[in-house]
Design brief:
homodimer, 3 strands, 2% strand
Chain lengths: 511, 511
């Protein structure tokens, strides 16, 4: 190996060591840390973050990267790593220590204020901090630059490198044009019954069932584990130690099932990254959108499908013969796919979910542009919920205060959730075309061919390709919302017996 | 606060953040980490250790400490912190990066070799690595210096600052002179029955009982937690997050009980350190010997006493009415205090335990002096076990290969185990004299007065005092083996109905 490249790799691995160490501390914080440990843990995390930042912006690394960028002897993969690392380096250098510290302080204050405001349903408690955060984010856009595009591009790019506000605008215009009407059509049809999802389901049995689902997906328990946390998440300390968490509610079967499969999907991506590229871009996930595509593909395209439950519902029924005695696979499939406009994003069905995201995207864009003031936010929010979802928001706690993101200063994050679902639909369509008899495999509980396809087409590359490049390479075209819409029409027309879907229903029963 | 002192404190806290972060990773490694995570975890730990070492030997810290050492405006506590930190700084500076890296590599190889050798009962697999380790340790003694004393002093001091080989020689001569004969006297008496300790005890119930014991001791579960690990340990990430682990064996009640109380004792010390002194010497335990005094005091002086089980045996019997149906408190007390020479240190009773330590101490000293060669080690070991414990060592796995310490390069560590027990006896004698009705409190399950005494007399000071200073301050004299011997004679003469103890028996029954 090129000596400089070797030095670069060693430096990057050290940075990764520190970042992953912070990851272990954060995982512990959410799973096992005793309450009084919180104060010092925050300090320990902040010290590690500061050290990682220092290493990642060191002159040593900068010089090395600039030398390597001019080095023609590197392999294609080495070149891509260097190019990506140099971009990251230059981006990070745009932040002064003063700015980083100011952000860290403000976020910490804003998070406290948000918690209080949400608890007491008093938006004004959070508003002054949010105003400052918006100001800071506008400053951050100027620091980072946005090359003649929308200032919000700078924020988007932190989570979805290469994404443009104008493209997301086009995308959501499409969503609005097609999905809003389709959901209205569903709303006019008789609702399916999902009341049995809320009977009593013993927690330990749910847990055991969830573990079986993860194993079936191919999640490697030798390189990961599942624990309980308030908010489910997945996290990684190398592709050899990728963890998931879940929550289990005795009176809501949905909680455990969807968090298990969703986080499992994220984790399979991380477990599929190349361990030899630990610390390098090619050993990292591409973007939040592509990450979310993996969780959504497993959660929605696989986990909310009929073949999946033809295999797994009988198993679930063994665990819970009493509450599910009068339920059959088809009833269960219908129940888990009930479309019902609701207040809370995280509990939304896979269609109305995107209205939640659209609202947040519009708000973030307007705040960053300066066309919306923080004080007007609750009114704006509530109007949008009426407009897109047709529901009245009873209070800010279940409205504008519901999500943690803004209190963390995470602007530009929300759109990646929708991007993920849309990528998932497009990838899954391609996988279905390329894997002979995929639905049959799923029905037999054989998910290995799908995981193999994802490993080969997506996971193994890390950041070798950008999201757009990968999408074109895998599916032959850029992100196309049409795949999601086709998937949605096909599935929900059958589920709700809509006129537009009769044709598809027939097709599916034959296949 | 003095500006320089403030800067010093901030630097020390950063170093502590990194060290405690490594502590979290190590804890996770022993409790929850999936097997395939091991490789990268080792690398992450090594990176954090390297960074902490770099910070702790930085010129910035050195200059600051030297300035502060000449600063007369500091308070007494500040002065002691600076003095201790400067000593630590100068000690650390004696290690070159080359030496640290060489050690780290060798330890890693030696550990692998030891594991293999122990598994296959083949000492020669470990011997070459151990030879190199001994050579390295001799080099380390020269690096560190030992001021005209024994080279082994340099190693001892890493675990027990201020300890001298010649003092430990005197101490163990005393142990040999008094304890060997006393144990022989016990061996001649009829043995007590402890077979019921090895019936079947359901693990979950043992766990629940252990949690009750920890709560009764005053271990704060808001600032700590217990988990399962192969080898029980306690660890701390600040005095607000101090964790213990235990192991539970279905057929050996001793495992859980003694690890729970022992690690609980360690943890109470850490929980009693001043959080405002986080990262400073006064926020750290004095030495391994004093640390061990806290675990041994709870384990032996409290936990293996009759009053303790007068309170807790009825509770234990509620958990296990069947296997303990024919057992009463006195039987149980006798069973847990059976003295029986044995091969394995960690399972030894509280008297013969010290023979195991003496043997290791003699060996380490001889290896470091060069008067014993590694190749002669198994013979030497086996001869000593015959001489001090009267037993034949059937194989090296249960002999010279049993302990992990040497494979880790931890020479000088073992003696602190005995020091701990002897300090414990001395402290407990003083506590008993100063806390009115202590035995009665223990019998009522009220351990708060004892914890309060330990907090006030020992825990709160951290490293403000050295081990010797503390011992004198608390008990009025230096470490005196006589306290342990008195405790042992009193207790075991009664337990084994020895002639020499009849008098004490009478006294105890009256009191």
């Amino acid at each position: 190996m090129n000596t400089n490249y070797g030095r670069y790799k060693a430096l990057m691995q050290k940075i990764a060591d520190v970042n992953y160490a912070a990851g272990v501390l954060a995982w512990d914080q959410e799973t096992y840390m005793p309450p009084r440990g919180a104060d010092k843990r925050a300090q320990q995390l902040s010290t590690l973050a500061g050290m990682a930042h220092e290493m990642a912006t060191s002159p040593e690394l900068g010089e090395l990267l600039n030398q390597l960028a001019a080095d023609n002897t590197l392999s294609e993969k080495e070149k891509r790593n260097v190019k990506q690392s140099l971009k990251d380096y230059n981006d990070r250098k745009k932040y002064s220590t003063e700015f980083v510290e100011r952000t860290s302080r403000l976020v910490s204050e804003a998070f406290q204020a948000w918690q209080q405001a949400k608890k007491e349903n008093r938006f004004p408690l959070f508003a002054p901090k949010l105003e400052k955060l918006v100001e800071l984010k506008r400053e951050e856009c100027r620091l980072l630059g946005y090359e003649g595009g929308h200032p919000y591009d700078a924020l988007l790019n932190q989570y979805e490198p290469g994404a443009k506000t104008k493209d997301i605008d086009v995308l959501f215009a499409d969503v609005k044009a097609k999905l809003v009407d389709f959901v209205k059509e569903i709303a006019a049809a008789p609702q399916n019954n999902d009341s049995f999802m809320h009977l009593t389901y013993e927690k330990q049995k749910q847990w055991d069932f969830g573990i079986e689902l993860l194993k079936q997906m191919g999640y490697d328990f030798e390189a990961g584990r599942q624990d309980i946390s308030t908010h489910p998440f997945s996290t990684s300390f190398s592709s050899q130690d990728v963890r998931v968490t879940t929550r289990v509610s005795e009176n809501n079967l949905n909680e455990m099932i969807w968090s298990c499969i969703h986080e499992g999907g994220h984790a399979l991506y991380e477990q599929g990254l190349n361990i030899d590229d630990y610390g390098l871009p090619t050993g990292e996930a591409i973007s939040l959108g592509i990450h979310e595509s993996q969780s959504r593909l497993w959660e929605n395209n696989v986990g909310r499908s009929l073949p999946y439950w033809r295999c797994n519902f009988p198993l679930l029924k063994k665990y819970f013969p009493v509450p599910l005695s009068a339920v059959d696979t088809e009833d269960f499939y219908k129940a888990m796919n009930v479309v019902r406009p609701s207040l809370i994003r995280t509990g939304a069905d896979e269609l109305t979910y995107h209205f939640h995201i659209m609202i947040r995207f519009e708000i973030e864009k307007a705040l960053i542009e300066g066309s919306l003031q923080v004080k007007d936010l609750p009114d704006y929010w509530n109007r949008k919920y009426k407009e897109y979802l047709g529901i009245d928001v009873p209070d800010d706690t279940r409205g504008v205060l519901q999500d943690i993101h803004w209190s963390h200063g995470s602007f530009g994050y929300f759109p990646t959730y929708s991007l993920g679902s849309f990528y998932a639909a497009q990838f899954f369509a391609k996988a279905s075309a390329q894997i002979p008899g995929l639905a049959g495999h799923v029905e037999n509980g054989n998910l290995a061919p799908l995981l193999k396809w994802l490993r080969e087409n997506i996971h193994q590359y890390g950041k070798f390709y950008s999201a757009e490049e990968l999408c074109i390479k895998v599916t032959g075209e850029k992100l196309n919302f049409g795949y999601f819409m086709d998937y949605a029409r096909n599935k929900y027309s059958r589920l709700y017996n809509l006129p537009s879907g009769r044709q598809e229903l027939k097709k599916e029963t034959v296949s």
